[in-house]
Amino acid sequence: MPDNTQLQKELESYSDYELFKYLTEFESQMTSERLIILEQVILNRQVILDSSETYTLESLGLFSKYKEIVESYKNKIEIESRPEYINWNKIIDVVEWFGEMGERRRVVKSFNDASKRSFVSGNAPTLLKAKITMGESEYAHAFSKFLTSGFRIKALAGRQLNTYDIAEIGNVIMANKEIVRQLISLGWDTLYLYSNNETNGLKWSLKGVRQNDWR
Prior knowledge:
Distance between the termini: 42 Å
Radius of gyration: 20 Å
Mean pLDDT: 86
Shape: globular
Strand content: 5-15%
Number of helices: 9
Low-confidence stretches: 210-215
Number of domains: 2
């Protein structure tokens, strides 16, 4: 069990920039316990700044980021309380689904085979299919394959994916840094996820930047 008092002291010693980086790094792993600690840290910092009237762009950005994370967490809790909520983290075993990482086409086949098995068995409510496609030029890196640097996942059948499903599936993949590094080394730079009708979609830079690009 982490020492919350020690964590609070550590966070209070951070500069606005360092605390902003912390919020960004742990945004997808936020818990109610961590939010309570952050709330106290942020409130203490705001009281100090209010009294001195020394707001900076960094401090304003920090407060804005904190509010964004709180709203996102509230929305997440609200969504997870719905009967139709699906925990994709418990369905997608990233290491198993991506399988053999030695060759690009085998990676795609491994993903599609695992997705099909999961759908047929009833474990996954939606059939997902991956394919190789063009990536985003702004996400390119030293290993990017020309014209084939996109890893595209689309829902084919079963339960319609909502926007939260799409974001969660992508986050499940992006959270496994070893798999992401291997995908990068094989020439991919962009991860795409689309709903069954392609009206909703998200894209991620495999280098670590998510783009809210709903379609």
